[in-house]
Design a protein that fits this description.
The complex is a heterodimer of chains A (259) and B (164). Chain A is an alpha+beta fold and 259 residues long. Helices cover 32% and strands 24% of the residues of chain A. Chain B contains five helices and five strands. The chains are: A alpha+beta (259), B alpha+beta (164).
């Protein structure tokens, strides 16, 4: 554990021992070529303020932590903890997956790297082995004319997401989509790549008809559940809204920055 | 299992023995007798237990005492020591404007907003309202508290601009 904002709330009676990772030198945000490295124990509040994360497409991570809990929670919670908790509604995994983040995992048998997307198996089930910890998030560089945006729907700013969408879009000179990621949060046991919608967008110009079709495809791919916060049907309908909104926001960031 | 830890609270070092599962809030209140820090929800939602650790507003109910070793911890008891009236400007304006009713949430609120104002002396009312999202008060409806915080911000900001 590090920040304690999940572990100490749950008070899981099967936990016999806790190891506090907060003193490990893993709290940093660094440049790596044109990509970025984020240490696992970096607090959400450090990410919120990082000037390294204020340009597209990396600013999607700041989008995601803007409404993350309260000031106190942001001061305590870490990005590694948010990623490893494995909760479907977590705010940082969809944007990080949209950026093709690779995680560095270290343990008694050495270290390995794997795409963050592959770390998730099921609700709260990760592909980490006993004795392994996540130490670093490695976000690769993106082609020019790339932007990303995260939008979430929740009852209040401090509540967890009912549904969310993280989108990364790369455009060529003629405004056709050359690469993209559409990742949905809180509508499946794990952060969900909407691959059909991603494939659909490739090579297209983002007009209204394309956006509508793409967001409907994403909605069909989602696998939400009914719970105390919302019905599955509502979540599915909201995905169409959120995906379109996220794409529009990403494109508007491109308009603002690449001139 | 017991652990020996040294906690620095309001500038004083305390050498204490704790159980690994004891929270900082528990130790502050029950071991050190610093009962100004309150515990309400115990799950990090309400903000009543907020203290300042190394300058950051921190929930003492979700911090293990053993993990707090080496941090500079400031509680409501230490919030006012640097001010002449023995009250922090937030406490003064809360008292003058009527920011407290039952008062239970106020120590946590003062600590959260003290850290916030120190980092953001030029914040807007909207910033203050957003920051106050970390503290739940069931009495007031927050109107007087926002008013008091604006006034405290102006007091602190003016003090900072005065020549020494």
């Amino acid at each position: 554990m590090c920040g304690g904002t999940d572990v100490l709330v749950e008070q899981n009676p099967t936990v016999r021992e806790l190891v506090d990772l907060s003193r490990l030198p893993l709290s940093y945000i660094r440049r790596m070529g044109n990509g970025i490295l984020i240490g696992a124990t970096t607090r959400i509040s450090q990410i919120e303020r990082s000037s390294m994360l204020n340009r597209p497409p990396f600013d999607i991570i700041r989008d995601a932590v803007k409404d993350f809990g309260t000031i106190q929670i942001r001061n305590m919670a870490t990005i590694g903890g948010n990623v490893c908790n494995g909760i479907p509604s977590a705010d940082t995994p969809p944007p990080l997956i949209a950026l093709d983040t690779v995680v560095k995992v270290e343990g008694v048998n050495g270290s390995r790297k794997l795409p963050l997307e592959q770390m998730y198996r099921h609700v709260r089930k990760l592909s980490l082995k006993r004795g392994e910890i996540l130490t670093e998030l490695r976000i690769p560089m993106s082609p020019s004319r790339t932007a990303a945006a995260y939008v979430r729907l929740s009852r209040s700013e401090v509540d967890i997401a009912l549904a969310s969408a993280a989108v990364r879009i790369s455009l060529d000179r003629r405004d056709r989509v050359t690469a993209n990621r559409i990742v949905l949060g809180a509508v499946a046991p794990i952060p969900l790549r909407a691959r059909k919608s991603e494939d659909y967008l490739l090579g297209r110009v983002l007009d209204q008809q394309t956006l509508t079709e793409c967001s409907h495809l994403a909605s069909e791919e989602s696998r939400p559940i009914d719970d105390v916060r919302a019905t599955a049907q509502y979540r599915r309908e909201m995905i169409t809204v959120l995906v379109e909104r996220a794409i529009r926001r990403a494109v508007s960031k491109l308009r603002r920055t690449t001139r | 299992m017991k652990l020996s830890v040294t906690l620095n609270v309001n500038g004083t070092n305390y050498f204490i023995v704790v159980e690994p599962h004891w929270t900082l809030a528990y130790v502050l209140r029950e071991v050190l007798g610093l009962t100004g820090t309150k515990v309400a929800c115990g799950t990090g939602d309400c903000g009543c237990c907020t203290v300042i650790a190394d300058g950051k507003a921190t929930l003492s109910c979700l911090t293990l005492a053993a993990s707090a070793e080496g941090l500079k911890i400031e509680t409501i008891e230490g919030a006012s020591t640097q001010f002449k009236e023995k009250l922090h400007p937030i406490q003064t304006t809360f008292a003058e404007i009527g920011g407290a009713q039952c008062g239970f949430c106020i120590p946590g609120m003062v600590m959260n907003m003290k850290a916030f104002l120190e980092e953001n002396p030029t914040c807007t009312e909207a910033d203050l309202r957003r920051a106050l999202g970390g503290n739940i008060c069931r009495c007031t409806g927050y109107a007087k508290q926002v008013e008091a915080l604006i006034s405290a911000r102006d007091l602190l900001f003016q003090e900072r601009r005065l020549p020494h």
